[in-house]
Amino acid sequence: MPDHGEAHAEVRGHRFLRPWYPVPDLHRHIRLPGRTVVVYERLPVGSDRGLLLDLLNTPDDGDHTDLDSYLLQLTSTYLRVFTETARLSPPEAVVGKLYRSRARPGGRLDHYYADQDPALTDTEDGPRFSDLARTGLYVNGRHHRLDWAETITWLRDAFDVPVWSVISQGDPTDVNLAVPLAWLDYDTAGRNAIAGEIANFSFYTAVLGGWLVPTLNPEAFARHPATFAQLPANTPHVSSHMHAGTLHIRFTDRSTHARRLALSRYWELLVRPIAARYLPGKSLGEALRPYLAMRIIGVFDLARMSLEQRLYLIAKLALCMDPGFSPTRFFGLTEYACPTR
């Protein structure tokens, strides 16, 4: 690892996580000029095998028994650790790398969007994000008010409040979860917000992992080429037009059966009981809102995306910021798999 600070966080996170979750053995970490070498136990990861990603790449007409068994093991482990370690924590006690640090001045929101006003059409003289404060936008036929500058300002302080936190790896994606079950990548391991944990896994499973990440960073999936075979089935359909000065976006989410199963089971087996205990009623949606917003605009720079990708994410942001925001509708979850409607 070329950054000594990140290497230190990685080693510290591994030690923090080890008593609670299955992780590969850490054999050595050696500081050298210009980099730190961290040596772990080798896990059986190979071409299209060894990660949750590979189970999610099972074709729709394939057998999903292994995926379902894995999800049962994953969620039961989480449920045990979350129940044992949950506490109401001040913001400075929670790992801030993915959320609080990115939202604060000088963080990723500034790096991406300071002095930027991304376009909403493919013409130079067309409307931009700043125009939405005046016009709003229509998403799938319903009008939403979205003030881009106000949203950025709100996110600056949204993570400076006490939150329910648990001990976790903090970045639970399909490439950070190994098969057999183990957690990988530890620089965000520690005490993480429950809402951030839920938002990360859910949005990555539903949107980022099957579509946007392999589309924008294909070289990261060279050893898992089945990802690209599933890409068309995970790519949303997006269309847009202007009418009377207002942007209209229509989208249809598309996910493979495996990804829908993973998300549904995660919510049914983990989110439902955890939310009932720590985030009851409407507080789940309110708790998720800032973390989802950061997943939507704080992972990739919207200004550097294709117009279709940008419009899809701005539509998702509008749904997230709507006063009537519903996690059930947002993720397309069936009623039985979600704690609130």
- Uncertain runs are 335-341
Strand order of the largest sheet: 5-4-11-10
Q: Counting H and I runs of at least 4 residues, what is the number of helices?
A: 14
Largest sheet: 4 strands, mixed
Report how far the terminal alpha carbons are from each other: 44 Å
Assign an overall shape.
Answer: globular
How do the helices and strands follow one another from N- to C-terminus?
HEEHHEHHHEEHEEEEHHHEEHHHH
- What's the overall average pLDDT, rounded? 94
- Total domain modules: 2
Fraction of residues in H or I helices: 40-55%
| Strand composition percent | 5-15%
Radius of gyration: 20 Å
Oligomer: single chain
Number of strands: 11
Structural class: alpha+beta
Overall description:
The protein is an alpha+beta fold and 341 residues long. The protein has two domains: 1-42, no CATH class; 43-337. The chain is built from 14 helices and eleven strands. The protein has helices at 4-17, 52-56, 65-85, 100-103, 108-113, 132-135, 148-157, 194-216, 226-229, 231-234, 257-278, 283-297, 307-321, 327-331, and strands spanning 26-32, 35-40, 87-89, 137-139, 142-144, 163-168, 177-178, 182-183, 190-193, 237-243, 246-252. A four-stranded mixed β-sheet has the order 5-4-11-10, with helices on one face. Strands 3-6-9 form a three-stranded antiparallel β-sheet. Strands 1-2 form a two-stranded antiparallel ribbon. Helix 3 (65-85) packs parallel to helix 11, helix 8 packs antiparallel against helix 11 (257-278) and helix 8 (194-216) runs parallel beside helix 12. The chain is globular and about 60 Å long. It starts with a helix and ends in a 10-residue tail after the last helix. Mean pLDDT is 94; it is low at 335-341.
